[in-house]
Specification:
Layout lengths: L5 H11 L2 E3 L11 E3 L1 H20 L4 E4 L4 E2 L1 H6 L2 H4 L1 E6 L6 E3 L20 E4 L2 E4 L9 E4 L4 H6 L1 H8 L5 E10 L14 E11 L4 H18 L7 E5 L11 E9 L2 E12 L1 H6 L24 E2 L6 E2 L2 E8 H12 E5 L5 E5 L10 E5 L5 H15 L6 E3 L5 H11 L3 E5 L1 H6 L1 E6 L5 E5 H12 L1
Parallel strand pairs: 3-10, 20-21, 20-22
Antiparallel strand pairs: 1-2, 4-9, 5-6, 5-7, 8-9, 10-11, 11-17, 12-13, 13-14, 14-17, 15-16, 18-19, 22-23, 23-24
Helix pairs in contact: 2-9
The site of adenosine-5'-triphosphate has 16 residues, from β11, β14, β17 and α9.
């Protein structure tokens, strides 16, 4: 079961502290959101799961964390200055602006007028001035994708790690796009995070690697608890491919507002390394690139035997963290009918994604003996390094269980008066609501087994 509507998720996110409208107390800024106490945990857990799968579990990928502010030349040669735009339509009556593909039947989605301008390209990149003088002569872009600094650091990573093809560079970080019509909660926003891998391969092996990565990424999302039936592959039609792409497969997810892109897996060919490299004319670059005599690095690899230089092809799985969080929330959401006409809302996250792993709850608020035990249990479990363990000294067990069901905490550990007699606690399972008595000495092993 998933949420019935986006509104249901938005309400839960605000009520329980997952996601808030940014600058809300001043009326909010459109297309910007802040992650609250539970949202930041969920987001970090998702990013960690990605990093583990992409970097730690593989031996052919290195990590990177590059600057957000980007030299204009990087985005000139990447093609973004010329082509990173969406068609924009203005409504002459209500002065609103719309992305052309969001306008239906030539009517303004705001006021319904047909007094609209012709579509014109609108560049989505944010610019900001750099240094103390704001005269437009010194500026940088806020990166529209994390990928470009992976390409510009290609030689640094290659030289410092002695990698050979195939190998990848992974990065998680913020990206910024001045979206014309941000909408659908965190699905389309102006500041978001991406988890991107650029996987460098020998030309000629790119198509096989592309297929492989599409499968790896599908499997990964389903390991995060996304129902396979809610995922679909879309082979982007040739006329709609980004300027750098030879082929792109979009991994589409059934969001509450419809089937839309969660991740794109593109074959970027040798376009980006070819665009940013020096000595372009001496290299065999297959993509059509801007002539570049400003770069000072040769972004190519040398074959050990024949000493020939090759510009690698790149396969890029690029996933949105915010869209991932939205998909996970939607997949985990369910409302269950209980006996006596009661119901409960549960977020059934996989344990590794749950914002709080276990709540330790003394049966009676501020009871010295119970709280002392609870504190020791919390500290011991926290030391296991499994994520956040919360001591909840609220004294209202029923309310605590409901709250923890609703935020997806897999285990609630209750310290009661029997604990004082025989050093055991009750452990309640979020999904089955069953409780069992566990001796404190066995608790760490039980909790680690359960969460891992
Ligand atoms: P769309 O067609 O939906 O605008 P895109 O094809 O431009 O997306 P990519 O350039 O492929 O997106 O970016 C890779 C990933 O980054 C997307 O799959 C998505 O998860 C995420 N992403 C892109 N734009 C946004 C945005 N405005 N808000 C949130 N996430 C985004």
């Amino acid at each position: 079961m998933t949420a019935n509507s986006m509104d249901e998720l938005v309400a839960l996110c605000k009520r329980r502290g997952f996601i808030f409208q940014s600058s809300e107390i001043y009326g909010g800024l459109q297309g910007l959101y802040d992650y609250g106490p539970l949202g930041v945990e969920l987001k970090n857990n998702l990013k960690q799961a990605w990093w583990r799968a992409m970097v730690y579990d593989r031996d052919d990928v290195e990590g990177l964390d590059a600057a957000v502010l980007t030299h204009p030349k990087v985005l000139k040669y990447s093609g973004h200055e010329d082509t990173f735009s969406d068609p924009l339509i203005d409504c002459r009556d209500c002065k609103s602006r719309w992305r052309a593909d969001h306008v239906e039947a030539s009517r303004c989605p705001g006021c319904g007028s047909n007094n609209l301008t012709e579509p014109r390209p609108f560049n989505l990149m944010f610019k900001t001035s750099v240094g103390p003088v704001d005269d437009g002569s010194s500026f940088a872009y806020l990166r529209p994708e994390t990928a470009q600094q992976i390409f510009t650091n290609f030689k640094n990573v290659l030289d410092s790690t002695s990698r050979q093809l195939p190998f990848g560079i992974a990065q998680i970080g913020k990206a910024f796009r001045n979206e014309i019509t941000p909408r659908n909660f965190v699905f389309r926003v102006r500041e978001f995070e991406q988890m991107e891998l650029e996987f460098f391969v020998e030309p000629g092996t790119d198509e096989a690697w592309h297929e492989k990565w599409v499968q790896i990424r599908m499997d990964w999302w389903s390991n995060q608890g996304v129902d396979e039936n809610a995922l679909e592959l879309l082979h982007v039609p040739a006329g709609e491919l980004a300027h750098y792409s030879k082929a792109t497969v979009d991994l589409m997810y059934r969001f509450p507002h419809g089937l839309e892109e969660l991740e794109g897996i593109a074959n970027r060919t040798d376009f980006d390394l070819g665009s940013h490299t020096k000595n372009q004319s001496e290299l065999n670059i297959s993509a059509t690139v801007l002539p570049n005599n400003e770069s000072n690095a040769k972004l190519a690899v040398q074959n050990q035997q024949q000493k020939l230089w090759t510009v690698p092809y790149v396969i890029e799985p690029s996933a949105g963290v915010d869209r991932g969080v939205l998909a996970l929330l939607n997949e985990a959401y369910r409302v269950e009918q209980l006996d006596g006409g009661r119901e409960r809302t549960v977020l059934s996250f996989k344990p590794h994604l749950a914002p709080i792993k276990a709540a330790v709850i003394p049966l009676k608020r501020n009871h010295e003996g119970l709280v002392t035990h609870a504190k020791t249990i919390k500290a011991d479990l926290q030391n296991l390094g499994l994520g956040r363990i919360l001591l909840e000294n609220s004294g209202n067990i029923g309310k605590s269980y409901r709250r923890h069901d609703e935020v997806g905490t897999p285990l609630c550990i209750t310290v009661d008066f029997e604990t004082l007699e025989n050093a055991s606690v009750t452990v309640r399972d979020r999904d089955t609501m069953e409780q069992q008595r566990i001796v404190i000495d066995d608790l760490a092993a039980y909790v680690s087994d359960y969460l891992e």
